[in-house]
Write a structure and sequence with these properties.
12 helices; 9 strands; binds glycine
Amino acid sequence: MKNIISLLCFLLFSVTIKSQQTTLTNQNFSTIETHLENMLNKIGNAEQNPGLTDKDGNVKLVSSKNWISGFFPGCLWYAYEYSKDEKYKVAAQHFTKNVEAEQFNATTHDMGFKIYCSFGNGYRLTHDSHYKDVIIQSAKTLITRFNPKTGCIRSWDHNRDKWQFPVIIDNMMNLELLFEAAKLSGDSIYYKIAVTHANTTLKNHFRNDYSTWHVVNYDTATGAVISKVTAQGYSDESCWARGEAWGLYGYTMCYRETKNKRYLEQAKKIAEYVLTNKNLPEDMVPYWDYNAPNIPNEERDASAGAIMCSAFYELSVLSDNNNQKYKAAADKILATLSSPAFSAAPGTNGNFILMHSVGARPKNSDVNVPLIYADYYFIEANLRKMYMDR
Ligand code: GLY
C-alpha cells in the first residue's frame, strides 16, 4: 500500500512538472509571436533584416553582408514551424530572399550563419528546390576558403598584418551548411572539408580544461599554429563565453551529423567546463567571459546562454550518459531567459525578444543590447524542448 502511494505521488509529481514545462513553452511561443508580429508591423517589407537596436533602442536593419543577416528569417521559419501560420511563411520567404546574394560572397566564413539559418530552415520546411540550389552554391563558395595545408576554413580576411590565416571557434557553426550540402548534392567534398575542419579545431582550439581560444592563427606554408589569441574575449588566455557556446553547439551538431564519438566526447568535456565553472551564475546565463575581471559586476551575455540552452537540449538527446543533467541545464537556462530578467515585455526592446546580450566587449561594441542571434537560438531551444516534451 505504501509503495502504491509512493508510486502515485511520483507519477503526480512527474505529470505536474511536465505540464509546468509545457506551459512555459506555450507561454514563450505566445510572447515570441507577439514580438515577431510587432517587428513585422514596424519594418514592413524592408529590404534589409533586423539585427540589433540603435542607441535610441530602435530596431537597426543590417545588410545581407553582415554575419547576423540570416537570423531574422530563421526566427520567422521557426515561428512558421511552431504555428503553421502562413503569414510567417510569407514573411520568412521575403526576409530569406534579402540574404540570397550572399551565396556568392567568398570574402567571409559566415556563410552558415547567413544561409543555413535562412535558406536551410526554409528548405527543411518547404522543400523549395530553389532554396536547395542556394544552399549548394553557398557551400561551394564557402569551401573556396578551405586550405588543405592548415586543414581548416579561413575565418577572417581583415587584419592581414596581424594574422596570416585566422580561424575562430565560431567557424564550427558554419559546418552545418556543409553537412547539409553534402546530403543535398551527393558530393562528399563538403562532408570531408567539414570533418577536416572539425578535427583541426579539436586539436588546436582547446586548452587542457576544454576552455577555448577564440582565434587560432595558422602558417599557410607549414600548417603550423603561429599564435592563439582573442578578439572578443577578455584576454588571450581567458574563455570568451559565446566562443565556448559555439564549441558546445558545434561539436554536438558534428556528432549528430557524423556519429563520430570523438565529437560527442568533446561536446561532453565542453559541457563539463561550463557546468562546473565557478564563475557560471546560479541561473546559468554566463557573464560575457568566464574570466572577466570584475565578476559579478560584469555584463551577462544572453546570446551565449541561448546558444548553450539549445545545444544542451540536443546533447541531452544524443548523449550516451548524463542526459538528465544536460536536460536540467537546458531547462534552467530556458527558465532564466524566459523570466523578466531577460525576456522583454512586448512593445519594448526594439521588438526583440531577449535583452542583455554582448557583441564585442573589448571594443565596447553592442554591449548589453538585444541581438537577433540570441532570439534565434532562444526560439530554437523552445522548439527543441517542445519536441522533447511531447
Ligand atoms: N561570430 C561572431 C560572434 O559570435 O560574435
